[in-house]
Amino acid sequence: MAPKTLVVNEAGVYLSYIDSGAPSKSPYVTIFALHGMCFTGLIFKKVSKLFLDKGFRFVAVNRRNFAGSSPYTPEEYKELTTGNDEQKTAWVHSRGQEFTTFMVNFIQENDLPAMTPDGKSGGVVILGWSAGASLAIAALSIVDSLSQDAQSCLSTHLRAFIAQEPAPLALGLPTPPKNWAPLRETSIPEELRFKAFAHWITSYFEHGDLSKRELDSLSYVLASPLRPPSIYNMSTAETDEMLQLDQAAMSDLPFLFNLSNQLKVAFRKVCFDPVTKKLLPKMSITFMSGTMPPAFGPAGLWAVESEQKEAKTNHIHLKVVPGANHFMHWDDPEKAVEVYLDCVKL
C-alpha cells in the first residue's frame, strides 16, 4: 500500500493516507483511522489487511505534521502555542474541517456505499486512537458548519465513531493528579524523552481492581513484566517507517495541553448536543480501553462515564477489553478487529 495524498482546502493543505482498496463485494463498510502520538498511520497496517480479508475497506490517515501530510505553517504553530482563545477555537475548527473535507472528498471520489437501510452494511466508521480521537472529535464537532452537500454525505454514511483510549486530556477533561509520562519528565534528558515515551506507551501495566474506578488503583509509572512492550514486536525497518520522534511529533503536546478548553467544548458537542445527533442520526459512539494500557486509558474511560452520568444519558457505549494494552491493533490484530466490529455492531 503506497501512501497517497488528498488536498483538503484551497490553501493546498493535504493529508497522506494508506488505503487497503475496495473489497471484491459491495456494499461494504469503510473505516477511517487516525493515529496517536509518535506513531503514524502505518501502525494500523496489520488490521488493515485483516479487514480487507473480511470485506471491509481500511483507510489510515496521517494527521497534519506527520509523514507525508502538510506541516503546520509558522502562523498555525504560533496560534497553537501562544494564541488567544479565539485563535485556538479557530485552530480546532480548521483541523476539524480539514478532516471532514478529507472524508467527504474520499467518499465522493471513490463512490463509497452509503449505509444500507437495514444497517447491516455500507457506510463509514471513524476510529480515533489515542490523540487521534481529539482530531476525530474536532471534525465531528463542526459538522453543523459544513455545506448542505457535505452534511448530507456524512448523514447517510457515518455509522460509528470509535474512540480507542484517549487520555482525559485529549478530551479536555481533568488529568488525574498522579498522571506521569516520559515526555514531561525533566529528569530524563530531553533528547531521550521521545524514545523513552515510545517504550513506556507500548508497555503493559498491571492496575488494581478496575471495577472500583479508583484513580489511585492505577499504575502510572512502572510497567508490568508479564508481556514485553509492543515496540519489541517491531522490526527496525517497521519502527523506521512508522515511528516519528522528531520535532513534528512534538506539536501534539501544545495541541493537547494548550487547547483543553476547546477540546472539552468539542467533546461535549459531539457526545451530548442534540444538534449533532440530528445531523448524524445513524452514528453510534463507543469509548473503549484495554485493562493493561498506561493509566490514561482507564482514566479516560472513567472520565467519559462521569460526563455521561452528569449529562443524564446512556447512549455512549463504554467498552473494556481484557488483557489489551495501548497497541492492541499491533500485538493482537485479530482481537482488535473483533473488538472494532463489535463496536460497529453490524
List the helices and strands and how they pair.
Blueprint: E1 4-7, E2 14-19, E3 30-34, H1 45-53, E4 57-62, H2 74-82, H3 85-109, E5 124-129, H4 132-140, H5 148-157, E6 158-164, H6 193-201, H7 236-242, H8 252-258, H9 260-272, H10 274-279, E7 284-290, H11 296-310, E8 317-321, H12 328-331, H13 333-344
Helix pairs in contact: 1-13, 3-4, 4-9
Structural write-up:
With 346 residues, the protein is of the alpha/beta class. It has a single domain, classed as Alpha/Beta hydrolase fold, catalytic domain (Rossmann fold), CATH 3.40.50.1820. The chain contains 13 helices and eight strands. The chain has an eight-stranded mixed sheet, with helices on both faces. Helix 1 links the parallel strand 3 and strand 4 (57-62). Helix 4 (132-140) packs across helix 9. GO terms for molecular function: hydrolase activity. InterPro entries: AB_hydrolase_1, AB_hydrolase_fold.
